[in-house]
Amino acid sequence: MKTPRSHIAPVLAGLTLKSGVNAQQLSQEIAAYLLDENRTGELDSLLRDVVAYRADKGVVEVTAVAAHELPDSVKLDIEKLVREQFKDVKQIIINQRIDASVVGGVRLELVDQQLDMTVRNKLNRFKELTTVERTAA
User: Fold this and answer.
1) Rounded distance between C-alpha atoms, residue 45 and residue 119, angstroms
2) Strand 59-66, strand 105-109: pairing
3) DSSP state letters, the chain
4) What are the backbone angles phi and psi of residue 61, rounded to the nearest 5°?
5) What angle separates helix 5-17 from helix 23-36, to the nearest 10 degrees?
6) pTM exceeds 0.85 for this model
7) Beta-sheet pairing, 91-98 with 59-66
8) How many Å apart are CA 72 and CA 5, to the nearest integer?
């Protein structure tokens, strides 16, 4: 009988919260376990569970997707937004992902939500609003 993901994630998350844990070794052991148990398809779900557990313990991770490297002032704004959303946050980790398809702005991806402040999203919303107004008239 395989161990449920709901039991594995808290153990892994707890290990990541301890100081002195070798992240590379831990990731290799997780990969080996998933390969051995033929559960590699569960990796994304398992990692989401780990990130959610860490957020419950005050370590919030946010991925900022933008076309270019974010300046420090924008990173501070992101931290402020995260602190407003998560009152008991102890640590905020901002992971940046550069995506050339993001024309401008930034998309924030958190464990259970997304805040899309990209130019493309704003243009799409504007397009929807103008289409609704034309069909209503």
Assistant:
1) 29
2) antiparallel
3) -PPPHHHHHHHHHHHHHSTT--HHHHHHHHHHHHHHTT-GGGHHHHHHHHHHHHHHTTEEEEEEEESSPPPHHHHHHHHHHHHHH-TT-SEEEEEEEE-TT--SEEEEE-SS-EEEEEHHHHHHHHHHHHHHHHHH-
4) -110, 135
5) 170
6) no
7) parallel
8) 37
Q: Give the CA angle between residues 83, 75, 127 to the nearest 5°.
A: 90
Report which residue type is found at 113.
Answer: Q
Nearest to 66 by CA among 95, 94, 98: 98
Contact 102, 66 (CB under 8 A): yes
pLDDT surpassing 80 at residue 114? yes
Q: What is the pLDDT of residue 27?
A: 87
26, two tokens: 């831990």
Residues 6+ apart with CB under 8 A from 45: 5
pLDDT of residue 75: 95
**Residues 111, 52: contact at Cβ < 8 Å?**
yes
CA 35, distance to chain mean position in Å, is 24
Q: Are 76 and 94 in contact (CB under 8 A)?
A: no
